[in-house]
Amino acid sequence: MAKNDLIAKFLIWRLRHLSNQAFILILSGLIGIFSGLAAVILTTSVHAIQKFLTDDFYKEYANFMYIIYPLVGISAAYLIGKFVLKDIGGHGIPDVLFNISKKSSIIPRVKIYSRVITSALTVGFGGSVGLEAPMVITGSAIGSNVGLLMHLNPKKRALLIGCGAAGAISAIFGAPIGAVIFAIEVILLEISTASFIPLLIASVMGSITSMILIGDESLFNFDLKETFVAAHMPYYLLLGIICGLVSLYFSRMVRATEKIMDDIGDQWMRIMYGGAFLGIVVFIFPPIYGEGYSTLNTLIDGNSSQILDKSPFFSSIENPIMIIVFLTLIVLVKPIATAVTIGSGGSGGIFAPSLYVGGIVGFLFAYSQNMLGFHTPLPMGHFTLVAMCGLMAGVQHSPLSAIFLIAEITGGYELFVPLMFVSAIAYTTTTYFQKDSLYKLQLKDQGKLLPETKDQELLDTIDISHVIERDLLPIHPNSQLKNLIELVKISKRNIFPVVDENDLLRGIITLDDFRDIMFDLEKQETVLVKQLMQSPPEILLVTENMQSAMEKFERSGAWNLPVVENGRYLGFVSKSRIFNTYRKRLIRQKQD
Questions:
Q1: Rounded to a whole number, what is the largest CA-CA distance in the chain?
Q2: Residue among 218, 216, 188, 221 nearest 202 (CA)
């Protein structure tokens, strides 16, 4: 009670001394700091676990512990998530999108810390997923719950969710501009200029927090020595198309694998099968262990032969052809390993795996061309980084985020032109075959549909039960015409629902249906309502979403439609009532 009183007093003080805009700016900075702190804790924990588990591995021996680690990590993550935290891993960013769209931007408080713990165990023990999605969930949960604590409306909470996501991504990559654009492009989808400033503040504070705690250490450590050459643009065009096609493969393999995992009914069987599969894959292909960013650093630095060191089957082979085969197999297997990790009960996301696969695709493209000796040597570091951008644009449908994220982590804008070009080509290629991003497709696979436009989003906030009109007078199907005429005298409406003794809707009757006989005294005694009634052009269900309801109105051409619940008549909904409610909410949204 004391806590609630303290918050109430603070909110009263805030209303007197701080404008809404200033208050949001302060909250965005705090959220950025806490999101950055959570990102540092997670990444540091994962690296510590991985170092502890694999530091004594030797490249000249088969390291059989690789087979065991993923099973241990996924089992631990599932057990702790289910029985201690009450929050099992799974999809990350899709769940955030769904909470913003369908749950008034409310994210459960447990997600502030649950994904930090379960993701650290999953990835630290070799689960083939990324930490970015769990961090986005953590940052978003911080933003959502701060908004709830401060009694902010859903729109303001959504903005704070974006601030949490921006702070987390900025802290992980040290890319504040890319983080802001990611929050807008992927999380919030649409935002005003005034709302842009809180995202900037949160992103900067997340990045600064990371710098203070762990210094300038970055996920990617390299120095681009070559300059961009315009003559390479035809190769970048081809790379963009390849990235788009690989993005399609990535998305479809993730979804297909997730479906297979879902079909395994028993959770412990999923863990056993998934852990065994991952253990074997990581044993054969050690670069798939965890996030895999160290592999990308190795490739960018030009030390490709080192990636074979810890594999028991490839370590003694230094043939360039074998490097190509090895990396190609990793590209094919990585999406499956990612989906198996999540489907088994682990916690993580597809953000890092898409960057990982993209980097390998770019390296393979340049490495193969250089080995064959066509035209001019290609800078492998450039193509590795640009292809990371291409895969991110294709898989997540976030071309702008991809451009600025990779541009920032390279420490400059030397590659800005090829990044823009490949991102656009990859995105166009992917969307030609697949309209939605992998995040939206994953939600659709779960039966969760997001609105396509802002109009749909606003419509979805209107509940049919809140716009039902109950002033239409019902009549029994066995009633005589004269009884109906009595209702006409007292009714203000010209539609009458025909309802039986169990309140079940049997039909409707309008004034036009009996206008020509209503003054015929003989027919008033002999004609029954059931002889005059008609079936409604469409029937609305009380559980139906408003988008579906509007489609029925358009399809039928009706202005009023009846609403039922399990066949029982509840009332009518009119287009005019919906439009009026829509207009009021639109005005309220603009005021907010």
A1: 104
A2: 188
Which of the 8 DSSP states describes residue 495?
E
Q: What single string gives the DSSP state of each residue in 335-391? A: HHHHHHHHHHT---BSHHHHHHHHHHHHHHHHHHHHHHT-SS---HHHHHHHHHHHH
- 469 and 444, same structural domain? no
Question: Mean pLDDT highest for which of 223-227, 446-450, 506-510?
Answer: 506-510
Residues paired with 562 in a beta bridge: 572
Report the C-alpha gap between 291 and 295 in whole angstroms: 9
Same domain, 41 and 167: yes
For residues 445 and 461, membership in a common domain is answered with: no
Say which CATH number the domain at 323 has.
Answer: 1.10.3080.10
The domain containing residue 130 runs over which residues?
Answer: 6-214
pLDDT of 132: 87
The label of the residue with tokens 């028991």 reads 312
Residue carrying structure tokens 């404008």 = 19
Please write the tens of the pLDDT for every residue from 394-416.
Answer: 999 999 999 999 888 876 677 88
Residues 6+ apart with CB under 8 A from 72: 125, 275
Q: 151, exposed or middle or buried, with CB in 10 Å at 0-12, 13-18, 19+?
A: exposed
Measure the N-to-C terminal CA separation of the chain; round to a whole number of Å: 30
The token pair at 225 is: 């020595």
**Taking all residues of the chain, what is their mean pLDDT, rounded to a whole number?**
87
Question: pLDDT at position 254, please?
Answer: 94
Domain end call among 390, 423, 449 = 449
Question: What global pTM score does this model have?
Answer: 0.82
Whichever domain contains 470, its CATH number is 3.10.580.10
Q: Residue 492 — very low, low, confident or very high, per pLDDT cuts 50/70/90?
A: confident
Note whether residue 222 is domain-resident: no
Task: Tell me which of 449, 475, 492 is where a domain ends.
Answer: 449
Give 333's pLDDT tier (boundaries 50, 70, 90). Answer: very high
Provide CB contacts within 8 A for 103, sequence distance 6+: none
Q: Is 400 in the same domain as 290? A: yes
Angle at 221 between CA 217 and CA 222, to 5 degrees: 145
Based on the structure, what is the number of domains in the chain?
3
Check residue 590 and give its pLDDT: 63
Inter-residue contact 203 to 356 (CB < 8 Å): no
Is the domain of 154 the same as that of 252? Answer: no
Mean per-residue pLDDT for 286-307? 80
Is residue 220 in some structural domain? no
- pLDDT for the residue 332: 96
pLDDT value of residue 463? 85
